[in-house]
Design goal:
The protein has 3 helices and 4 strands; from the N terminus they run H-E-E-E-H-E-H. It has about 120 residues and is an alpha+beta fold. The radius of gyration is 14 Å and the shape is globular.
């Protein structure tokens, strides 16, 4: 592999491999995670229709401006996303880690969603 390939390109390749197998349906929508260097985003998506059912991010008004660690912020985003999903009647999802390792902020988001009652 060439040294000129960026980390993001490699992540996008991993994500494409994962997406071959992971797909959201009406019964089990996909919980997709994206993280940037500063923020973390989560979406619950029905891939059959192509609609985002629920979304949450660290840019939300109720989460922005809090002096907490990035991992704690990711956990709160997961809790907020799960809370919104349950309000729409969604109890089970499939988890799409977006090509990232299931570690750190991605794992914290998943933990927060599970604590709020979302199953995956």
């Amino acid at each position: 592999m060439s040294k000129n390939v960026s980390r993001n390109v490699l992540r996008q390749r991993r994500h494409a491999r994962i997406r071959k197998k992971v797909s959201g349906t009406a019964e089990f929508p996909r919980l997709a995670v994206f993280r940037s260097s500063r923020h973390v985003y989560a979406q619950v998506i029905d891939d059959q229709v192509g609609h985002t059912l629920v979304a949450a991010s660290s840019l939300e008004k109720e989460l922005r401006g809090q002096e907490i660690s990035p991992i704690e912020m990711a956990k709160r985003v997961g809790q907020l996303c799960a809370k919104r999903a349950q309000e729409k009647g969604i109890t089970s999802v499939v988890f799409d880690r977006g090509g990232y390792q299931f570690h750190g902020r991605v794992a914290a988001l998943a933990e927060g969603a599970r604590e709020q009652g979302l199953e995956f």
